[in-house]
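Example record for the data management plan.
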Amino acid sequence: GVLMETEVWPNLVRAACSRGVPLVLANARLSELSFQQAMRWSWLARPAYSALSAVWAQTEEDALRLRAIGAPVQAVLGNLKFDARPDDAQRQRAAQLRPGLKRPVLMFASSREGEEALLLKALQTLPQPWPFDLLIVPRHPQRFDEVGALLAGAGYSVWRRSQAGDDLSLWPASAGTVRLGDSLGEMALYYSLASFALLGGSFLPLGGQNLIEAAACGCPVIVGPHTFNFSEVAERAIEEGAACRVSDIDYALRQACDWAQDAQGPERSRRALEFAQRHRGSAQATAERLLAWC
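Corresponding structural encoding:
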């Protein structure tokens, strides 16, 4: 059996071992917070991790924490998500639409509960009209209507992706309209339309979301202070120019305004793409290890 990332469940591991079914953990990661939680329950976690046949970690930091909890880490192979390719049809569709947009697009990507309210409050401090079109894509689909109601209640005109159907040329021209990405499976379209993105989950202590897909679409990212779920990827993206870190949502919007009005957009997009391409190869390495292990 092959488990992925963090999916180590003690009962599953014990049942597999009792039946002679070996398990490996691929693309393994363990944040510092998760590590501390595992150590508090070490009587449960340690037997589960130590019973695995092999573990292939994403980063050296993950490997150190996994070994400390008893996991038999055999190699550090990078992050499989770098090898995921954005949907070509969605990227081409976005490329056809972007020349017709009047302003850069700021996307709030995978926003989490409470973050939209922070954004709306911060938007009140910006001069009108904004130098960008605003697109919000909530992380969880069950919150689409909630976020739409929140935006409408704040007095904004709301355009919903689900109402446009196949005709995305209906993207509204008004700078005061907030666009709501209330569809599933279209992140490549949204990231490819966006000039830059705010990383959801990073402006409240939620750990952030993975920014690799954004980079693979050439979308540079502004991250908040909380990226502990993907700390290594976030730090590498910052170091390599695919992202920048800010202290809060107000600073993030000021940064977005600066980016919307400078001439460095193509260069930032190029650095994001190069970051995503530079770290590919984990899928091949993992497949080779898995075949050898089998």
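Summary line stored alongside the record: The CA atoms of residues 264 and 270 lie 10 Å apart.
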